[in-house]
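Z., the sequence and structure:
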Amino acid sequence: MLKGGISDPRNNALMKMFNLIDIGERAGSGVPDIYSVWDSQGWVSPEVKEQYNPDRTILLLAFEEKQAEKASRKNKQKRQI
């Protein structure tokens, strides 16, 4: 899932509807794109949790800076003072 390239829709009818109106794709690139954006923004990496009974995949997206980014920003601010 994290590498992408595999599309496994939970709702085939909904996926087909989106494809019919040309706003869907089966590239399987959504999750890697999310990781790429989070990394480019310097946010903490998304966390994937899988649960069973019932089957669920949970993607936790935190708008929180990585510790290294926070430290770098603080050091930069101190040098400017």
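Residues 67-80 form the longest helix (14 residues). The first strand starts at residue 47 and ends at 51.

Let me know what you think.
H.
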